[in-house]
Amino acid sequence: MPEDEKKVVHWTSGEEADLVVFLLEQRAAGNQAKSGFKPIVWHAVSERLALNHPKEVKKSIECCKSRCQRLKGEYCIVCELCEQSRFGWDEAKQLMTTPHNTWEKYTASHPKAKPFHHKSFPLFDDIASLIDAIVATGAGALHMAGDDEQDEGPLDNIDPVMCGRNGITVGGNDNDGSVSSNTETPAASNKCAHNGGPPPGVK
């Protein structure tokens, strides 16, 4: 689809939470193959979101896959921030913390991190669990790519070095929106160096 014909799809925080929780449920139910989630899962995700959020625009299967990848990309960014010595994590607010001048200096060379100066990331723990679960199955690589239904402010072209440090491989597009790793991924607790050291698997 031509770039100017792509639809910008808005997601609420409730829809994002439902997406991640449902994928965790489906993983626990055994609906995940080594190549990623089974096709029936993405159809069920789309239908569940439509049922639980009737006032929102229905999210297509491809849109759900795209949003899942975006959330995993944001997870990569937060993990990278947690490696920085002057960055901390406010558990109550689910928010990164650091002096303003430190943010300015860091985001000058890492512009994709800018939103997290004021944006909370309450799904960190759930996404960590989802990624750890998929890693255990040996699924394919985490991919960041746009779809015909484009999320607002897409996180394509995520730095592969950044995510690689956290045990997540970033590559091109695939058909099932799967993730994998050949090293340990960060756990949900002990996120930042300010809070007791970097997460496991983060050097």
UniProtKB/TrEMBL annotation:
Region (Disordered) location: 166-203
Pfam families (UniProt xref): Myb_DNA-bind_3
Residue ranges, compositional bias (Polar residues): 175-188
Signal peptide: none
InterPro entries: Myb/SANT-like_dom (IPR024752)
Coiled coil spans: none
Highest taxon above the source species: Eukaryota
Domain Myb/SANT-like: 10-106
Protein name: Myb/SANT-like domain-containing protein
Organism: Sphaerobolus stellatus (strain SS14)
Lineage of the organism: Eukaryota, Fungi, Dikarya, Basidiomycota, Agaricomycotina
